[in-house]
């Protein structure tokens, strides 16, 4: 079996997920390839798309939202993502009937989940966009408890009933699936070439490979017995490599050994690459991992230069102005600082804010 070193794994992951030279032509294309863009913080979901889509603008994103070419639903690991609408069926196929905390939670509040979902659907059918306040009114005194961390909206999403209208800074409206054109959402089980799980396997090892079986388990949030037999049948057709850690890494495409990172990458918080692997030290070393994965499940924005983890970053917006701060793990040359600043200026342009400069701090 051919060997692959840690650097090759990292660079191929950057390449396969659309972060290097071969970017995606549109935001829906990027979302489809990565099987969703994690977006509990909408602005960082949009930054994840900006980093992967050729010349993406806020205006183009808004058109995708208005035309339902991107929708926001709960998916893998029961977290909210932006997906192409045709992928909603695959999420439903895999997760709709999984045991989760929602039924017990609603029962504990004296509500029947199925009754609540029926009432929600009737409300959603009454207009194209239903504000969150209308659901608060529907749920009455238990509204807060029923809506915490997505609450009953999660099951409505997994059932294929409702989706969140993508909007910054957070969701205000929900819409019924009937408002999506049938040609965009697919046939929902009729004449599907692949099951949801088969589709997820193919997309994962295409966009996130090389990766291990445990990485796939982490990404899906599924238990091994729920996917192992199907995965085994598919992986025999993929490329496999022996990693430095003794683990077997799989990829749908053959690894490239001459990949280079031409310019710095400013990956946003919760970038797809940092929610998709069980093994966290694939880019940063063991001492640096805690700089990315913070308490309470927070994942920092990451700076990558020359295929190496160089630190984290944040921005501060005041009115129509933005300033960036980079927390470096190693000294950076003036040349690289200028290259990082150039990318920060590009991001400020995407954010439609006036660039006010970049600060560099050694941590």
Question: Which terms summarize this structure?
Answer:
16 helices; Winged helix DNA-binding domain-containing protein; 18% strand; 363 residues; five-stranded mixed sheet; alpha+beta; 2 domains
What can you see in these coordinates?
With 363 residues, the protein is of the alpha+beta class. It folds into two domains: 3-185, no CATH class; 265-362, no CATH class. 37% of the residues lie in helices and 18% in strands. It contains 16 helices and 14 strands. It has helices at residues 6-16, 27-33, 42-50, 58-66, 88-95, 102-108, 113-124, 132-139, 143-147, 152-158, 182-185, 196-207, 213-220, 228-235, 289-292, 334-350; strands spanning 3-4, 37-38, 71-74, 80-83, 130-131, 162-164, 173-176, 239-243, 248-251, 265-267, 301-305, 308-318, 321-328, 354-362. The strands form four sheets. The protein has a five-stranded mixed beta sheet with strand order 10-11-12-13-14, covered by helices on one side. Strands 1-8-9 form a three-stranded mixed beta sheet. A three-stranded antiparallel beta sheet has the order 2-4-3. A hairpin with a 4-residue loop joins strand 8 and strand 9. Helix 5 packs across helix 12 and helix 7 crosses helix 8. This is Winged helix DNA-binding domain-containing protein.
């Amino acid at each position: 079996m051919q060997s692959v070193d840690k650097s090759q794994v990292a660079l191929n992951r950057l390449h396969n997920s659309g972060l290097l030279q071969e970017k995606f032509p549109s935001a829906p294309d990027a979302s489809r390839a990565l099987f969703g863009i994690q977006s509990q913080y909408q602005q960082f979901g949009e930054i994840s798309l900006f980093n992967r889509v050729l010349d993406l603008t806020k205006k183009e994103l808004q058109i995708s939202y208005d035309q339902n070419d991107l929708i926001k639903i709960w998916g893998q690991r029961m977290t909210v993502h932006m997906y192409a609408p045709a992928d909603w069926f695959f999420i439903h196929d895999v997760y709709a009937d999984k045991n989760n905390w929602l039924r017990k939670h609603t029962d504990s509040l004296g509500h029947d989940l199925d009754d609540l979902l029926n009432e929600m659907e009737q409300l959603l059918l009454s207009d194209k966009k239903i504000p969150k306040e209308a659901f608060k009114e529907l749920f009455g005194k238990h509204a807060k408890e029923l809506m915490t961390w997505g609450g009953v909206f999660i099951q409505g999403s997994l059932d294929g009933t409702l989706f969140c209208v993508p909007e910054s800074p957070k969701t205000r409206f929900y819409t019924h699936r009937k408002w999506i054109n049938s040609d965009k959402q697919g046939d929902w089980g009729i004449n599907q070439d692949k099951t949801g799980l088969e589709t997820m396997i193919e997309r994962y090892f295409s966009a996130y490979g090389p990766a291990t079986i445990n990485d796939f388990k982490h990404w899906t949030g599924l238990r091994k017995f729920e996917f192992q037999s199907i995965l085994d049948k598919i992986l025999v057709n993929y490329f496999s490599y022996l990693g430095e850690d003794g683990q077997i890494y799989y990829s749908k495409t053959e690894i490239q050994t001459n990949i280079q990172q031409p310019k710095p990458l400013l990956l946003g918080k919760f970038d797809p690459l940092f929610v998709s692997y069980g093994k966290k030290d694939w880019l940063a070393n063991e001492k640096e991992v805690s700089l990315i994965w913070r308490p309470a499940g927070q994942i920092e924005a990451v700076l990558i230069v020359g295929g190496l983890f160089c630190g984290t970053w944040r921005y501060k917006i005041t009115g129509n102005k933005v300033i960036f701060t980079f927390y470096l793990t190693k000294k950076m040359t003036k040349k690289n600082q200028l290259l990082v600043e150039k990318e920060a200026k590009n991001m400020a342009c995407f954010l439609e804010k006036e660039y006010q400069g970049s600060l560099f701090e050694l941590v």
